[in-house]
Design brief:
The protein is mostly helical. The chain is about 70% helix and about 0% strand. α1 packs across α6 and α3 crosses α5. About 45% of the residues are buried.
Length: about 200
Amino acid sequence: MTTNPTDTMPPRRLFLNQVGIAAAGMTALAFLDGPATAAAVKKHAVVHGANDLGILQGALALEHEGIAAYRLAGGSGLLSPGTLKVALNFKGHHDAHRDSLAKLIAGMGGKPVEPKSDGEYVKELNLGALKTEGDVVKLAAGLEQGATNAYVGQIAALKDKKIALLFAQLSTDEAVHWAVLNGALGNSVPTNAYLFG
């Protein structure tokens, strides 16, 4: 007995939809502290020193925000069980990003920036405006693109090649999140090259 390839499409689409919604919810919220852009990371870097250490501190602040967003959105009741499962997977990505950045900062003699309070994140991320799972996904797609741009935009400013490689890896994770979300929203693949940076 042969199976028609289209028989597997609905479950795959359902899975991708769930992944997209979860990723959107968590990652989108992760970078809502003003738009996640190279300028936002640079702003944090200026506060902490306009060098590799300062840029790392800015990136760590964004990862703290992402982790808080996943945690808060996960407890909001807006996400279905399938979406929540995927969201927790994406939160795991942000936890790993945070740990890598904090380790580098400490290794350079810096004190890793601490996360803000949940209340601050709720206000800054305007979490009250999200009413449906779809709202979260739509917002997340734009934020993931911004997060990717934030990391890509700082690579050239980094002096240490190992840190630049880490930022390339971080931007790749964020680009994958964006691609999944973009697909979950039913958007077509962009025709232009050089989507980020």
